Amino acid sequence: MNISLPQRLFSTLLFINIAMVMCAFIGEYAQARTSAIEVNYLNITELNNELRLDAEIAYELNSEVREALVNGISLQFQVEVQIVSLQKWLWDKIIVTTVKTHSLKYHVLSKQYVLENLETGESDSFPDLESVLIQQGRVSALYIAEADYLNKKESYVVQLRSQLLTNKLPLPLRMKSYFSPKWRLDSGWYEWQL
């Protein structure tokens, strides 16, 4: 089967273009993953028959997300905790899910970052982004479940993840977040044996 010179040239150029586009996407994704959310510490304690979670989560915002925050865009982050029963033959079963959501804002006039707990309505102000991200990453004595609720004969894991809720962004940014990995800030699931 003979392929003419123009067909070979076209095929070669097409291959080079596809390779360049793939490299650009991979480079953008790798750059976005350098600014992420990471679970550094997780501990479960039992206090008065209640399971409580302590965790430290490191938040690093890339330049695009920081710029949006400084320009008045409110960011919502969610910490989700699940207790999962490990099954031998079937799919694992989620027993309990607990969610904690924070709103992070920047007030231009006061030059303060405001962190608000959306469940309780409590808020605190911070002079710089680093301080507010450290506070946001502290999870202390978060109630998960009653200890009696769990069957002592079963095996369980606690899963924790934190993510930026892109569905809470203003519509133009929400659309951008669907296509740009820079807006997909997610720690992934971190597991701890219970």
How is the secondary structure organized here?
Blueprint: H1 5-33, E1 37-47, E2 50-59, H2 63-70, E3 75-85, E4 93-107, E5 112-117, E6 123-126, H3 129-136, E7 138-146, E8 156-164, H4 171-179, E9 190-193
Antiparallel strand pairs: 1-2, 2-7, 3-4, 3-8, 4-5, 5-6, 8-9
CATH architecture of the largest domain: Sandwich
Order of helices and strands: HEEHEEEEHEEHE
Specify the structural class.
Answer: alpha+beta
Mean pLDDT: 85
Strands ordered across the widest β-sheet: 6-5-4-3-8-9
Put simply, the count of helices is 4
CATH topology of the largest domain: Immunoglobulin-like
CATH class of the largest domain: Mainly Beta
Radius of gyration: 22 Å
Which percent bin holds the helix content? 25-40%
How large is the share of residues in beta strands?
35-45%
Shape: flat
Characterization of this structure:
This protein is α+β, with helices and mostly antiparallel strands and 194 residues long. The chain has two domains: 1-33; 36-193, Immunoglobulin-like (Sandwich). Helix content is 28%, strand content 41%. It has four helices and nine strands; from the N terminus they run αββαββββαββαβ. It has helices at 5-33, 63-70, 129-136, 171-179, and strands spanning 37-47, 50-59, 75-85, 93-107, 112-117, 123-126, 138-146, 156-164, 190-193. The strands form two sheets. Strands 6-5-4-3-8-9 form a six-stranded antiparallel sheet, covered by helices on one side. The radius of gyration is 22 Å and the shape is flat. Mean pLDDT is 85; it is low at 28-35.
